[in-house]
Design brief:
heterodimer, A: Uridine Diphospho-n-acetylenolpyruvylglucosamine Reductase, domain 3, 12 helices, globular, B: alpha+beta, Ubiquitin-like (UB roll), five-stranded mixed β-sheet, 6 helices, 15% strand
Chain lengths: 291, 180
């Protein structure tokens, strides 16, 4: 398979790229191409212009801001995130997530921004980033705006990003507790993914609040209020028992699409198992954190 | 639409090369059809099987889903660049010794992927070997022989196998051969 012809531009600055993307009817930003080129080859997408972002400096920077936020450039590859000492230390769940995406070739060039903007529901990063309360920074002809990770994905292959807007970086606020991401994979992509983040009360023995997002089940990451509520105010050692009180019924609230990854009852069962494992991960990390 | 032609230049297996390519030309087609390097194989054509793996700027990529334009000003290493044309790299030699190839179609991709593995991690654990290679598919060997071939190159396994030769550590340097 070969993609149809397109024009190929290589801007060296963000404002040039924003200008270039406005000059055509079907222009796409292009970085790793692991999703976009596949779609162009299969002719399910048509592009008359690709704007290669790889010559724009600083789009793949990974660093801490003065406020302690973790900044991840949209063009950071999965491999860069996996191997970043900063992320391994500050947010091991994200490093671990990226180490398991697809395969080594996709991780080498595929970017976290491309993954988010393509919005294939069977993907990992959007789920954990929503659980972490991340914010996505977009730049377009009208200037910059910030969107909560929870609000970014609208549905299958659909986000709030305007066609002339570029995702520049992701801001992950400092976490007041451990986080975990677990997935069950069918082939290259997750069938089910569960992201979890705990906010611990002072002393580190009690869970103040929890954010959980279930990914890949429906068109976008979902939360289940009953599950988050049941863990709030609970001692970390009692979390698994408290969870058992509301499960499995609480997961009936999830929208689950049956597809080649499995039927809805099967996926719900996997979600339940992964949820329990995330709780166990967070508990273990909370204990280590305290000692 | 008129086809845009790009002048690109890069290092191919250690040698400077140049080409005029349409923007939509894929790297695999440039390598196989223009440079006549047929070792890189097209198989699944969707980044899943690894048969088309090459190193682009030191990173393993699926050349079936990489633009030729992405090689511009960079460095590409294909299976042909991993050793002397008439020789075998130590990884290829290990595949021969351990029966890591049967029909051989996936083998160039495996060899390139294993080269990348050792470039980054001279002593991978069993899990690290499996994890690194899970994106390369082989329909003949059942993977056990391939795993054993790779495992034989890990220094500790090698030391065990060659107790008497304490000085003969395998070269841990990246292999950067060239086509002459």
């Amino acid at each position: 398979m070969r993609p149809a012809a397109f024009e190929y531009l290589r801007p060296t600055a963000r404002n040039e790229a924003i200008r270039d993307v406005q000059g055509s009817d079907a222009a796409f930003f292009y970085a790793g191409g692991t999703e976009l080129l596949l779609a162009l080859k299969m002719r399910v997408l048509r592009a008359d212009r690709l704007i290669d972002l790889k010559r724009i400096p600083d789009l793949d920077s990974i660093h801490l801001s003065e406020q302690g936020d973790l900044i991840v450039g949209a063009r950071a590859t999965h491999r860069q995130i996996e191997t970043s000492a900063l992320i391994q230390e500050a947010l091991p769940a994200l490093s671990q997530l990226c180490s398991q995406v697809a395969n080594i070739r996709v991780r080498s060039v595929g970017t976290i921004g491309g993954n988010l903007c393509f919005a294939e529901p069977h993907a990992d990063p959007a789920t954990l980033l929503a659980a972490l309360g991340a914010r996505l920074h977009l730049v377009g002809p009208e200037g910059e705006r910030v969107v909560a990770a929870d609000e970014f994905v609208l549905g299958e292959f659909e986000t709030v990003r305007g066609e002339h807007e570029m995702l520049t970086h992701i801001v992950i606020p400092p976490q007041a507790g451990p986080s975990s991401y677990r997935r069950f994979r069918h082939g290259e992509r997750p069938s089910v993914g569960v992201g979890m983040s705990w906010r611990l009360a002072k002393g580190g023995k009690v869970i103040e609040s929890v954010r959980i997002r279930f990914g890949a089940l429906g068109p976008r990451p979902q939360s289940v209020e009953a599950v988050e509520r049941c863990l709030a105010g609970v001692e970390i050692d009692n979390a698994s028992d408290e969870l058992a009180v509301v499960l499995p019924d609480a997961l009936d609230a999830l929208e689950v699409i049956s597809d080649r990854h499995g039927g809805d009852d099967y996926k719900r069962h996997i979600a339940l198992t992964l949820l329990k494992r995330c709780v166990a991960d967070c508990r273990e990390a909370a204990v280590v954190r305290r000692s | 639409m008129t086809v845009q032609s790009l002048a690109i230049g890069f290092t191919l297996n250690g040698r400077d090369v140049a080409a005029e390519v349409p923007a939509n030309r894929l790297l695999i087609d440039l390598l196989r059809d223009h440079f006549k390097l047929k070792g890189t194989k097209r198989s699944c054509d969707m980044e899943v099987c690894g048969a088309c793996t090459v190193l682009l700027n030191g990173e393993p990529v699926s050349s079936c889903t990489t633009l030729a334009a992405d090689a511009d000003q960079g460095a590409v290493v294909t299976i042909e660049g991993l050793c002397d044309p008439n020789g075998l790299s130590r990884i290829q030699q290990a595949f021969v010794e351990h029966g890591g190839a049967q029909c051989g179609f996936c083998t160039p991709g495996f060899i390139v992927a294993v080269t990348d593995l050792f470039n980054r991690n001279p002593s991978p654990s069993d899990d690290e070997i499996r994890h690194h290679l899970r994106g390369n598919l082989c329909r003949c060997t059942g993977y056990v022989k391939i795993f054993e071939a790779v495992k034989s190159l890990v220094p500790s396994a090698r030391e065990g196998a060659m107790k008497s030769a304490a000085t003969s550590q395998p070269s841990l340097m990246p292999i950067t051969g060239k086509v002459s």
